[in-house]
Amino acid sequence: MAVTDEAIEKIKGMIVSGALRPGDRLPKESELAAELGLSRNSLREAVRALSLIRILDVRQGDGTYVTSLDPQLLLEALSFVVDFHRDDTVLEFLAVRRILEPAATAMAATRIGEAQLDVLSSQLDALGAQPSVEELVACDLEFHRGIVQSSGNSVLCSLLDGLSGPTTRARVWRGLTQEDAVSRTLHEHRAIVSALRDRDAEAARAWATVHVASVEQWLRSTL
Hints:
Blueprint: H1 3-17, H2 29-36, H3 40-52, E1 56-59, E2 63-66, H4 71-74, H5 76-82, H6 90-108, H7 114-127, H8 133-149, H9 154-177, H10 181-197, H11 201-222
């Protein structure tokens, strides 16, 4: 095992065991290096790596702290990673979204409030019948984010947020090249809102599946 990897594992072990808790300040570099049997250089590299993935927070002039370890914070790194996808892997991201988003939409059916449903309807009304592709995609992102947040599962919400990057590109491409994409998207969005208002989890799940699958099917036929 590389020296830096060993240092990362040892710090991880302290956090997992509870020796270091969310919000705790790490001991001074010299003390922690001695305690873990590491060189100060390898410890420094480990801290830098763990700060990049939001495990540690390095505060200049103050010290290094364990972050809140909140799932949303930790999963921010996912969106960075998926931005490096190749065109032929967009389908794989869409396939994952097709599994997760309908589940989140079904969960939201029993939890979403009337006020949030009104917001969703207002977003669709504000678009009008012929929005630009850019307006449609921006609304699509906010529309689904609002629903997923209502599922009550922050991990699911963060995962789907992270998957939006590559699928957004596919949505724009589809909107520019498929004539009925705009009207179909608006129809599917309204059907999802209707199912949520009826508190019909299975109908909401079905419409969300149709919505994601239609993008996936179209993209599969064009690649």
